[in-house]
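User: I'm new to structure prediction. If I give you an amino acid sequence, what do you actually give back? Let's try with this one:
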Amino acid sequence: MPARLTPVQWLICAIAAIGFAFDTYVVLMLPLIVGPALSELTHAAPGTPQFTHWTGILFWVPAIAGGLFGLLGGYLTDRLGRRRVLVWSILIYAFSVLAAGFCTNIWQFIVLRSTAFIGICVEFVAAVAWLAELFPDPKQRERVLGYTQAFSSLGGVLVATANSLSATYAQSLPAIYGGHEVWRYTLISGLLPAIPLIVIRPFLPESPAWQRQHAAGAIKRPSLAAIFSPELRRTTIVTTLMFAMSYGAAFGAIQQMPQIVRGVSEVAALARPLQQRVAADVQSWQEIGGLVGRTLLAMLVIVVVSRRRLLRIFQIPGLIVVPLVFWLAPGWDVPMLKAGMFAAGLCTVAQFSFWGNYLPRMYPTHLRGTGEGFAANVGGRMIGTGFAFVAAQLSSTLSGPPHVQLAKSAAIVAAFVYVCGLALSTVLPEPKQETLPE
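Assistant: Good question. You get back a string of structure tokens that encode the predicted 3D arrangement of the chain. For your 438 residues, that looks like this:
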């Protein structure tokens, strides 16, 4: 039986959970605010080529920037230590979300979204390596990684709630540039979860595995070439491609739903603040589904030995559910949309927790951040998020009103990435041992 968690370990888990929640909080702001923000900053109307162009850029360019610097962050995590990189990543994204609320043009918005993405991309890699090495007992480590990552979905629920509250109380809040735009207050709210991270995380312990090797001068220099060595090449390539498919489902389909919701007949007839509130409400149900999926994975991760079998528990139903939900969404009412997004979130979001548990077991200490960083950032952030751009461009070639075009496009993208992900799972390497490789 693993020892009970100490008070310091409980604090570590709590701070890690807040960090994971804040990552999702920042990412999922964009689907909620992209329409109003673009309308103000570019004066483009939804459904126009200009609006579609900027939407694709906002979903993809920050993710590319985050992926490039996240890859560097993984390397620095192995070189400089987990805790130091975590602290700096928090400071970067805290400043970025605050400043974005005061941007005055589209270029400022893109730059600040990019720096926010850089912060969360680096934070995820460093946090997973840090947590995995702080809990050496295999079953305890799996539980800690599983349940703390489940709080990522709480971040989605919180940002949807913050957006809804901003819509309700916007006129009571201090004016920004003479107005009370909901999207600005939603952006600024991203600073709140960062405060406990900035205050507490610098005082938490460094990873003992990394610190021990560093103090002995035994830690090897990380390199990209090393993660493509014969013994790690298959792991790196397959996990990178599968990470891309997981993110492809999220960005190419799930994150398009707030825009689709606004075009549904019963929602389109509402005033813009009410449309915002309904879109946020539907997204919150997707995140509740994601929370259930992540919690289910955390329960199954110590029961299901085969990693391939564990992943397919979510992939196989997702292959049916997610494309179907988006293809039918334009004809559904709001309660049906909520139910559909709950199911889509459960199948898709649980896969992100899978990678947080799986990747630390596949790389040695001196390559753990680099290997995780490559799969998460090159695969997930740089390739996977590009499916948002694909969905936006594909939608313009399809028939129907803008929200119907986008729904069809999202369904096609979802079907493609789920088929590819399921096929790749057949060659996913199984971990060789329960303990972390040194």
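You can read the tokens as a compact description of the fold. Here is one thing that stands out. The chain has 18 helices and no strands.
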